[in-house]
Specification:
Layout: H1 2-14, H2 38-51, E1 55-57, H3 64-73, E2 77-79, H4 81-92, H5 96-110, H6 137-172, E3 177-182, H7 188-196, E4 213-218, E5 224-229, H8 239-244, H9 246-254, E6 257-263, H10 269-282, E7 290-295, H11 302-315, E8 318-319, H12 328-338, E9 344-352, H13 356-365, E10 367-374, E11 377-385, H14 386-391, H15 398-405
Length: 406
């Protein structure tokens, strides 16, 4: 419970709120009318009056009926967990795509809850001569929101189509994609910056990254891969968010490898891992090859570090610190080893010295183990991606070709 409460505090802080008071209640089952009991509602009302709070937040989703009843009983606005998360997403959406996705999620969540808005949904007119068109404000708002949702669906489908075209162009040049996934605030953006040299926003606030970023990185084998930074997951991530961010999360679905970034210093890492697995299963990416990355090892003391190293040996995880750069070489090597779409092959090449462009391409994209000069020929022993080695098949030494066929 304390871990869940600490996470909820962090959500409130990320939304720009200042906590005036905290109240807990243990119940065998939720009250269908108000979630909490009638006595607790009175206690909340008293705390609101004494602290002059202007908002009550529940670390739980509220039904439309519960929301309506609580707003009637309390002298301030009421928000549930999903509305709070949607507000944080709205604050952090920077691109047009992100803003569309957040607005779609907000309206999808709001539409069935319009009946919980109480006084603001009164008749357009009341009394003689003020009846208006004979339609409630609620019906007008519902129709307007539905029209906006339909428009957003069209816009998001266009976004999805553009992403599909971009992906097809990338697939024309076979560069595999590696996606960063993990719990929010696990350090994915910091790791992304460390590996790519980019300067994307890195923040201790939850959901600082909403818009996916793609950057190329070079591996020890000289292969290039695209690294994708994605939105963080969280306990009870609202389904409306998963639906609206489907176009963004397609980068995870289409990637060859997932880097599951975990906070090694977190006291409830196993629960966070389970929540990430749950979301990956929902977007049909649970079967992807995965590398477990234990981040933030710079925050561990000596005994904790030994424990983390033991767990990493058992789980096959890579220990890193995105902040200090520790473990980056091991992580790049692990990515290199896990790639299967364009495997590394060894080759012996005999290239005329007059083929300067070919020699430059080999030096730039392959690992040269040995180089000898015989007359006007350069004899090379190299390792490189099979697709690239195949481009230089005319320079393969005959002995090497026979050996390969044998």
């Amino acid at each position: 419970m304390e871990e869940s409460l600490a996470e909820f505090r962090e959500l409130v802080t990320s939304a720009g709120g200042a906590i005036a008071a905290e109240l807990l209640q243990r119940r065998p089952r939720p009250d269908p009318a108000t979630l909490v009991g009638a006595g607790k509602v009175e206690e909340i009302a008293g705390v609101v009056a004494s602290t002059q709070a202007d908002l009550v937040l529940f670390d739980h989703d509220l039904t439309p009926t519960q929301l309506r009843n609580l707003e009637s009983a309390l002298p301030c606005r009421v928000l549930d967990r999903t509305q709070l998360i949607l507000d944080i997403f709205a604050r952090h959406a920077r691109t047009r795509e992100g803003q569309l996705q957040v607005e779609f999620a907000q309206l999808e969540y709001l539409l069935p809850r319009l009946t919980g808005r109480g006084k603001s949904m009164s008749q357009l007119g009341g009394g003689i001569g003020t009846r208006g068109p004979g339609e409630t404000q609620l019906e007008t708002d519902r129709r307007r929101i539905q029209r906006r949702i339909d428009r957003l669906k069209i816009d998001l489908e266009a976004v999805k189509r553009v992403r599909r075209q971009q992906r097809q162009r990338r697939e024309a040049v076979p560069v595999p994609t590696v996606a960063l996934v993990g719990y929010t605030n696990a350090g994915k953006s910091t790791l992304f910056n460390r590996l790519t040299g980019a300067q994307v926003l890195q923040s201790p606030r939850m959901f600082a990254t909403l818009d996916p970023k793609l950057r190329a990185i070079e591996l020890p084998s000289r292969r290039n891969v695209l690294l994708s930074d994605t939105v963080g997951f969280i306990r009870n991530l609202p389904h409306t968010l998963i639906t609206s961010f489907r176009a963004t999360l397609e980068e995870v679905e289409q990637s060859e490898i997932l880097l599951h970034v975990r906070d090694a210093a977190s006291s409830y890492g196993d629960e966070q891992k389970a929540q990430v697995e749950k979301v990956l299963a929902e977007i049909e990416a649970a079967g992807k090859p995965r590398i477990e990355v234990m981040n933030k090892i710079d925050l561990l003391n000596g005994q904790e570090r030994l424990g983390a190293e033991e767990r990493a040996r058992i789980d096959g995880a890579v220990l890193v610190s995105a902040r200090t750069g520790e473990g980056m070489d091991a992580l790049r090597a692990a990515i290199d080893q896990a790639l299967v779409s364009d495997p590394m092959v060894d080759a012996e090449l005999a290239v005329p010295q007059s083929e300067g462009a070919v020699l430059a391409a080999i030096d730039a994209a392959m690992v040269v183990h040995q180089r000898e000069y015989q007359g006007n020929m350069v004899l090379l022993v190299v390792s490189g991606p099979s697709s690239l080695v195949g481009r230089f098949r005319e320079f393969r030494k005959p002995a090497a070709r026979k050996q390969t066929l044998a």
